[in-house]
Amino acid sequence: MKVALLQGGRSLERGVSLRSGSRVNDALTALGHRVEAMDLGTDLVSRLETFSPDVAFIALHGSEGEDGTIQALLELLGIPHTGSGVAACQRCMDKSLAKFIFREHGIATPDWVTYSEAMIREFGAASTFSRAVQSVGLPLVAKPASGGSSLGIKVVTSEADIPAALMTALSYDSRALLETWVSGRELAVSVLDDEVLPILEAIPTESNTFDFEARYEIGGAEFVCPADLTEELAHEVSRISLEAHRALGCSGFARVDLILGEDGPQVLEVNAVPGMTGTSLLPQAGEAAGIGFEEMVGKMLDLAR
């Protein structure tokens, strides 16, 4: 098949995307497909129309690649693509919206408050930080409302630290969440073709959170897959992850990130276009399930068609 491999882009996760794309390119080539790697740019539509691919493999991360933008363009052009559709990508990308949907479906997720730049700069919402603390408690986590790879995330232990943490989060997006910090084990559940893969636990080796460096630097974290969970607990984590995947309307594949605390598993977010690098979690879960990287890439391509 002729496959347009979309990679790079203009988001802060461009480097991760290029690493994902390079690995996927090798797999697609090994599977015998004719691959045309394409970066985003003003000539993208003309390049796609000239190449006339049978399918597009999306290896883009962050804005434009995960928020439904490129999916909408491909669907307009009539090109099948890997992963979820426009609406599901938009829901996944907007962490606040996703959490409202989780709550509507009875899916456990940490409490949160959402702030926007306008609320703070134009409406005086900085005076409400004490109310936010009463709502979500301390410590809390400040994070951008969109984006991934743990960029812009800060753990806040006092109300006085909220302005600086929000400023950091809002430097990545126009909205940010203050979310209850839950002490627990960091789990990732990958879903492929509506089937749950082995649960993975990420154990950071240096920091207290699974941050950008821990995700993408070799040795930044220890990964255990399958995670050491009782059969009953593993079943519950898998169940809630699949419910979150379906609640947001995801298809093909996705990765659900959870925190396992004293009150059981809680969903943090769902990633519609998970990383495919050498340290990414979806490929690791596939390996634990006996699915090699090339086989996984081939499966993703088949699901797109």
Describe this structure in words.
This protein has 305 residues and is of the alpha+beta class. The protein has 3 domains: 2-83, Rossmann fold; 91-108 and 183-304, D-amino Acid Aminotransferase, Chain A, domain 1, CATH 3.30.470.20; 112-180, Dna Ligase, domain 1. It has 12 helices and 13 strands. The strands form 3 sheets. Strands 8, 9, 10, 11, 12 and 13 form a 6-stranded antiparallel β-sheet that branches. It has a 4-stranded antiparallel β-sheet with strand order 4-7-5-6. It has a 3-stranded parallel β-sheet with strand order 2-1-3, with helices on both faces. A hairpin with a 2-residue loop joins strand 12 and strand 13. Helix 1 (14-30) crosses helix 12. Mean pLDDT is 93; it is low at 210-218.
The overall average pLDDT, rounded, is 93
Count up the helices: 12
Shape: globular
Strand content bin: 15-25%
Helical proportion, percent range: 25-40%
The fourth-level CATH homologous superfamily of the largest domain is ATP-grasp fold, B domain
Can you tell me the number of structural domains? 3
| CATH-defined fold name of the largest domain | D-amino Acid Aminotransferase, Chain A, domain 1
Our measurement of the CA-to-CA distance between the termini, rounded to an integer number of angstroms, reads 11 Å
Could you name the CATH class of the largest domain? Answer: Alpha Beta
What sequence of helices (H) and strands (E) makes up the elements?
EHEHEHHHEHHEEHEEEEHEHEEHH
Give the number of DSSP strands.
13
CATH architecture of the largest domain: 2-Layer Sandwich
Low-confidence stretches: 210-218
Compute the CA-based radius of gyration: 19 Å
Secondary-structure-derived class = alpha+beta
Largest sheet: 6 strands, antiparallel
